Amino acid sequence: MTTYLEFIQQNEERDGVRFSWNVWPSSRLEATRMVVPVAALFTPLKERPDLPPIQYEPVLCSRTTCRAVLNPLCQVDYRAKLWACNFCYQRNQFPPTYAGISELNQPAELLPQFSSIEYVVLRGPQMPLIFLYVVDTCMEDEDLQALKESMQMSLSLLPPTALVGLITFGRMVQVHELGCEGISKSYVFRGTKDLSAKQLQEMLGLSKVPVTQATRGPQVQQPPPSNRFLQPVQKIDMNLTDLLGELQRDPWPVPQGKRPLRSSGVALSIAVGLLECTFPNTGARIMMFIGGPATQGPGMVVGDELKTPIRSWHDIEKDNAKYVKKGTKHFEALANRAATTGHVIDIYACALDQTGLLEMKCCPNLTGGYMVMGDSFNTSLFKQTFQRVFTKDMHGQFKMGFGGTLEIKTSREIKISGAIGPCVSLNSKGPCVSENEIGTGGTCQWKICGLSPTTTLAIYFEVVNQHNAPIPQGGRGAIQFVTQYQHSSGQRRIRVTTIARNWADAQTQIQNIAASFDQEAAAILMARLAIYRAETEEGPDVLRWLDRQLIRLPVLLDSSSILADRILLMDTFFQILIYHGETIAQWRKSGYQDMPEYENFRHLLQAPVDDAQEILHSRFPMPRYIDTEHGGSQARFLLSKVNPSQTHNNMYAWGQESGAPILTDDVSLQVFMDHLKKLAVSSAA
Amino acid sequence: MSQQGYVATPAYSQSQPGIGLSSPHYGHYGDPSHAGSAPGMMKPAGPLGAAAPGGMLPQGPSPPGPHQFGQSGAHAQGHPPQRFTGPPPVNSAAPVNSAAPSYAPYSPSAQSSYPSPASTSSVTQLGNQFNAMHINSYANYGLQMAGGQLAYPGGFPGGPAQMAGPPQLQKKLDPDSIPSPIQVIENDRATRGGQIYATNTRGQVPPLVTTDCVIQDQGNASPRYIRCTTYCFPCTSDMAKQAQIPLAAIIKPFATIPSNETPLYLVNHGENGPVRCNRCKAYMCPFMQFIEGGRRYQCGFCNCVNDVPPFYFQHLDHIGRRLDHYEKPELSLGSYEYVATLDYCRKNKPPNPPAFIFMIDVSYSNIKNGLVKLICEELKTVLEKLPKEEQEETSAIRVGFITYNKVLHFFNVKSNLAQPQMMVVTDVGEVFVPLLDGFLVNYQESQSVIHNLLDQIPEMFADSNENETVFAPVIQAGMEALKAADCAGKLFIFHSSLPTAEAPGKLRNRDDKKLINTDKEKILFQPQTNVYDSLAKDCVAHGCCVTLFLFPSQYVDVASLGLVPQLTGGTLYKYNNFQMHMDSQQFLNDLRNDIEKKIGFDAIMRVRTSTGFRATDFFGGIFMNNTTDVEMAAIDCDKAVTVEFKHDDKLGEDSGALIQCAVLYTTIGGQRRLRIHNLSLNCSSQLADLYKSCETDALINFFAKSAFKAVLHQPLKVIREILVNQTAHMLACYRKNCASPSAASQLILPDSMKVLPVYMNCLLKNCVLLSRPEISTDERAYQRQLVMTMGVADSQLFFYPQLLPIHTLDVKSTTLPAAIRCSESRLSEEGIFLLANGLNMFLWLGVSSPPELVQGIFNVPSFAHVNTDMTLLPEVGNPYSQTLRMIMSIIQQKRPYSMKLTIVKQREQPEMVFRQFLVEDKGLYGGSSYVDFLCCVHKEICQLLN
């Protein structure tokens, strides 16, 4: 066990890969019996400070259907300067530059410790990073002010060559021209009319940019390609800072009983279109900030009449939410367009009411963007999360990759069923592609527009080896992950990870296979699958599964733990909550912690805060930090998460002083487990 | 309503007012098919109708009363005879009564180009007639003049005998012997100039528009507001049909009043609002007859008896007049204003003050020729002079700015901004207003931001290569902006090219000379697309007036571009081939004048009449959704609406014919008001009375507008024929019914229409009606549109320009020199002449111009040194220069358009242009001389009399 734990940890550290099974059942039949499929969690840009990128391009297998990358698992004939592809067994000549290789002089990609290796593509221009701010102006002045400050702050974090753009919207959508002297210019669009990229291109006069540049004489100093709307931050940061400073709340009057007209749908469409026609296949982030739901135009979520409330979960379930489908369709189309051109869409939604993220969620989902939800832009939750987006690595580069494509190559015995994660299919059929789709399948290539060091895809495989064609003892299956992406320095890079796992016959070596089971990985993989199915099919129960994986308990997360003399710290990934029991809170109010004789009480109070701070420091997005006490309004966050062992239904049976009752109809874990046991027995019978 | 029902059709339209509706033809008289057609919408004759009891009106004796200017024998006492005598030749040393004018035989070579409906055979017939005449009819003329024929003083010896004869013996008819417009003008000036004209008498003919006098409102609207083609209506439609004299009024409701006349009184009845007749809704006016001790009043228009509202009650005096008669403007004056109550406002709430939006075409050519810079510079100063209510410190008008080429740029110039903001709207297919707050601002408050913007605009587009422009979206944008701001207003558009960019209202060059002189020629005057029609409708509905400054260097399709300005009561200015050094002064003057002029917004005009007749057709810068409400997005002091009346019953001589014109509008300060003009006319069953009370200047205004309107639907040839025919018919009717018997060959003109032939000839020679490919289509469309909104004074000057000798100036006098007739024969090589028609001004220099004058005016030693490349005379410090420039400014005063000065040297190429304005001569592009036309008309008359 210890060895497997270490092995798993090591693999994760080195290659960013965790498999559900680390020994694979050798036939399709056996694999299906395992219930949990052979699958991997793969983190393409796993941080590897110890892995310097190498300054040349990978050597590829010459078979056109294979094109696997030379890796440590390949057999090499140093004398004949040949290497055999470990996927298709093609024998390949080394390129002339490898003439000097020998057993003693091996290139890095052949060294076993470089099972993950990163190449730098030196060809082609280095593209600047692009950040397009899309800002809702229909919000309270206080919120807008905070948002403006956050955006101004972010400008200072951008590399000087990065291109920035600004789109603001409310009733109308304004695309701001940057770097104008003496007057600020913007192009204004109706919030109700969607425009194709071509229309937009004409309307913004973008098609003519090369023409006018050509006629303006020979000033060819190879300027980074930019246009009036996307300009290098070094050139216009003052201008943009002022522009943001002058940004006003949407000036159109909002009549009594109405919501402000918010054109989120068209605004995002214009942002996508702008990048589509100016910088296709160049790393770009659309950062959208919304303070409420879209109330007009394509993508609208709710009408502007306040008397009609925004759709609730019940409306959606009963198909009573008339805008949901149309809105979702609009945003899906945008997400696909952005994904096709390799652009990321982040959504920062801060409002007390719903903002329509349900309809918009595909945008970050398909493009690898962030989706952050908060109560107000004037909270540390938003401010610090947003700041954390611009975290830099030790080289001073952003921890983000753009426009990635992930290609997976497999040994013959195993095929790819699909991937679940922030990706879209590139529809690349090949010999490695399984017919059984799980998640985004039918392809061996995916596009991942936005990558962070923690972006992780769940990849599901299918063992295709027939039962009657056993794999020889000690045989290994190999999988190669080839990730091409634009590094935040502007370089194109290729990261290649090649791994191999042993095959084992399930009948004879079931213990080996069982021992190789990675419980955590499997839980996540199944959870992802469950969510994916829940979204695409029917499956309301699976959601609760996921929570459970993300909740780590300080104590047992049960309502029976909520006692007067306890301090509880709950971490639900999105929320960090410190709960002071009734007695503790009374003590705290009386100021015992400030008295020298109760120093240990002070420590007691301080301990969970320190723990929380540690979590808050690294977690992205920044969790909601809640410090509450018994009876406090914020205590509801705790009460909504705990296992309802005591509810208003049974509290009298449990008697006093046993914990806090939870007002819910959900069953407790105890009841659930009992029920599960009963089912397991009955189904076996 | 009867769009095509042209005046010239009294034969039918007078008796059957509805006929015009059904006929698409202009001037259908003579078309037998209409003779028996049923009336379209004849009003049932009111029981009171023409038979209204006498004595209901306090005034209005029958026409030959002592206050009337008449031509009957009675005129001799107390009235200067000049007005009724024949035309003394201007340059003739001999007085008219003793020396008979000489006349020349009619020259076949100078035959009128106007097609004669009399068919080809008439020529021969005439020829035969001519042969039969005797030379001594000449003597008869003299006798007539000296003798008892004063009643027909316009008599003209149409000497067919002299006109006949072998060609080699032909002599020219002496122009001095035919009626001279100059003489008529001078006579009227001499008799009535400088006097006080009181409007207390019903049906009195006012002084001519060319005569300066002080007008005192004593119960009828000043002729500055309303002029009529005749001040005595025929009692019956049969009579009207017989005379074929159009019955029309030219109403200029916002006419500028000289400072020595009383401005309009403002009546405020508070929440009660104006007192109106319950039945016909006519407003309280001097024509209401109070009865029953003042408790009730009878409406002069519909005869309905109404209760006097309690708040308005007043006792009557011994002659049945209210005691407060002279205290209430609406009881004693012809013109006054009412404060309108909320019932008269849109959505029943008081209007916001109007706004001006300046919309500048910043395409390549306008930037390159410096126009944009010029406009921006000028706006900085001219905006200081936005019109304001007299009692206010600053103008309530808000201003906004838009620039455009093929996209639109809106500007936020809110006062608290450090710098202006530009918002580009590229969706020209469906244009919208991108901002609300900060677009329309108070100029004083936002002055620094506006100046900042105006400084930047020329720079901003300095590098623009954009040639394409849009047009309809520009108007749309302005209209939407006004709509969003919930106010009326005016757009000032500065545009230069054919809008070819892809957008609604996109135009193509369709200037096809091949259409000229065909039935399809009318297409050139029609808009190319119906986009502009519906746009105009929207504009009017939202009180958006469009004024267009055009700077074309080629064909821009004025017929299409000008439609919205015309239908919204705006003005179209056109500067061909605009050159900064030559034309900027003219343009800037126009711009300043247009911004500063008095104007009313969001106006609806209603013309009410007493029973027996009604307004049937309207001409002008107006829009009509129904047959009675004349809608105008705005109306300014220079715009006139011409209204045609037709009978629908008999008119009574006692009750006369009453007209009330009410204009509901929003002032520049944002106050809703009603402006009321009342006019009472006589009625007579005697044709002679009718002919006595005509006003030729008004007739020409009416003929010009109705013909120019007909241009859209009818072949020009037909229109010209109708004009000639109707002229002949009117004169023949006079001859037949009013003149004493005389030789059939004699041409006798009614005194009031002495100059009708010459003016009519000028109208016929106008480029709109001349089908000649040499004349630019745009110019014709432009002039057509211009005339449609002209008042009587402007149309008079436009069709018969003023020509002043400058070399005979008396530099000590401040009065204008006497004008001379517009003919080349009146010019002399030794002379310098100034010609003005309201659009252009020419200074013509004879080759032998006196050097001291040339020196005095131009500061150069001789004629040869004069540089004609100037539009402004140098300020030379001597009396010649000063006097000439003073004369020019007097002529320019009160004219709606700034006249561009052109210096013309005799016998140099540009003289050709100048000659077109010598309207008594044969036209450069066709059109007969006055003499020839008169002969032609005479022939027609003879034809009709036979």
UniProtKB/TrEMBL annotation, chain A:
Q: Does the keyword Mitochondrion apply?
A: no
Q: Does the keyword Transmembrane apply?
A: no
The cellular component terms of Gene Ontology attached to this UniProt record, alphabetical and capped at eight, are:
COPII vesicle coat; cytosol; endoplasmic reticulum membrane
Cite the entry's keywords alphabetically.
Cytoplasm, Cytoplasmic vesicle, Endoplasmic reticulum, ER-Golgi transport, Membrane, Metal-binding, Protein transport, Transport, Zinc
Q: Which SUPFAM superfamilies match?
A: beta-sandwich domain of Sec23/24, C-terminal, gelsolin-like domain of Sec23/24, Helical domain of Sec23/24, vWA-like, Zn-finger domain of Sec23/24
Molecular function (GO) terms for this protein are: zinc ion binding
Looking at the record, the residues that make up the Zinc finger Sec23/Sec24-type domain are: 58-98
Q: Where is the Sec23/Sec24 trunk domain?
A: 126-390
Membrane topology qualifier: Peripheral membrane protein
Q: Which InterPro entries match?
A: ADF-H/Gelsolin-like_dom_sf, Beta-sandwich_Sec23_24, Gelsolin-like_dom, Gelsolin-like_dom_sf, Sec23, Sec23/24_helical_dom_sf, Sec23/24_trunk_dom, Sec23_C
Location comes to:
Cytoplasmic vesicle, COPII-coated vesicle membrane; Endoplasmic reticulum membrane; Cytoplasm, Cytosol
> Ranges for the Sec23/Sec24 beta-sandwich domain?
401-504
Q: Tell me, what's a Pfam family for it?
A: zf-Sec23_Sec24
Q: Which family does it belong to?
A: Belongs to the SEC23/SEC24 family. SEC23 subfamily.
Name listed for the protein in its UniProt record:
Protein transport protein SEC23
From TrEMBL, chain B:
Residue span, Sec23/Sec24 beta-sandwich domain = 600-684
Q: Give the source species.
A: Canis lupus familiaris
Q: Which UniProt keywords apply?
A: Cytoplasm, Cytoplasmic vesicle, Endoplasmic reticulum, ER-Golgi transport, Membrane, Metal-binding, Phosphoprotein, Protein transport, Transport, Zinc
Q: Where is the Sec23/Sec24 helical domain?
A: 696-795
Give the UniProt entry's GO cellular component terms. Answer: COPII vesicle coat; cytosol; endoplasmic reticulum membrane
Q: Where is the composition biased (Low complexity)?
A: 38-59, 91-123
Taxon lineage: Eukaryota, Metazoa, Chordata, Craniata, Vertebrata
What does the record say about its membrane topology?
A: Peripheral membrane protein
What spans are recorded as compositionally biased (Polar residues)? 1-17
UniProt-recorded name of the protein: SEC24 homolog D, COPII coat complex component
Q: Does the keyword Metal-binding apply?
A: yes
Q: Where is this region: Disordered?
A: 1-123
Task: Using the record's annotation, list all stretches that form the Gelsolin-like domain.
Answer: 814-888
Main localization is cytoplasm
Q: Name a GO molecular-function annotation.
A: SNARE binding
Its BP terms in the Gene Ontology are: COPII-coated vesicle cargo loading; intracellular protein transport
Q: What range(s) does the Zinc finger Sec23/Sec24-type domain occupy?
A: 274-312
Please state every residue range assigned to the domain named Sec23/Sec24 trunk: 351-594
Task: Write down the superkingdom of origin.
Answer: Eukaryota
Assigned protein family: Belongs to the SEC23/SEC24 family. SEC24 subfamily.
Compartment(s) of residence: Cytoplasm, Cytosol; Cytoplasmic vesicle, COPII-coated vesicle membrane; Endoplasmic reticulum membrane
